[in-house]
Write a structure and sequence with these properties.
The chain has 139 residues and is an alpha+beta fold. It is 40% helix and 14% strand.
Length: 139
């Protein structure tokens, strides 16, 4: 992915409330290209494995429950400096603190139900992309 791709997930709250199309359109309007995507309903074991980096933190159990509560949509996005560009596009974790026009300001319900996940580094983007898409994320 070499700095030009990142993993994004439209979380169960936004997917279940019909906001996936709006979120994708918003990101495409900001210059992101959708490389691959899928809809799935993660099991608790899958959500736990994906968020294992947070195991031991107070919010881990709640995060696993939430991410396994309904369908979500992982996707690989491409753009120059994709990780930082995506993080700027989605805004702060808490939508009350997110900048105007960001995905979370527009579509998130709360800090815990914040519409989207985004990789926080190029290394994690590669790892997370491989988790959901294998080598397809790197093509």
């Amino acid at each position: 992915m070499a700095g030009n791709r990142t993993l994004a997930i439209i979380k169960p709250d936004a997917f279940g409330s019909g906001k996936a199309g709006k979120i994708i359109a918003h990101l495409e309007a900001q210059g992101f290209t959708l490389i691959c995507a899928r809809v799935l309903h993660m099991s608790k074991a899958e959500a736990g494995a994906f968020y294992e980096v947070h195991k031991g933190r107070p919010f881990y159990g709640e995060l696993v429950e939430f991410m396994s509560s309904g369908p979500c949509m992982p996707m690989v996005l491409q753009k120059d400096d994709a990780v930082s560009a995506y993080r700027a596009a989605i805004g702060a974790t808490d939508p009350a603190e997110a900048a105007e026009g960001t995905v979370r300001k527009l579509y998130a319900e709360s800090k815990g139900r914040n519409a989207v996940h985004g990789s926080d580094s190029d290394e994690n983007a590669r790892h997370e992309g491989m988790f959901f898409f294998g080598a397809d994320a790197l093509i």
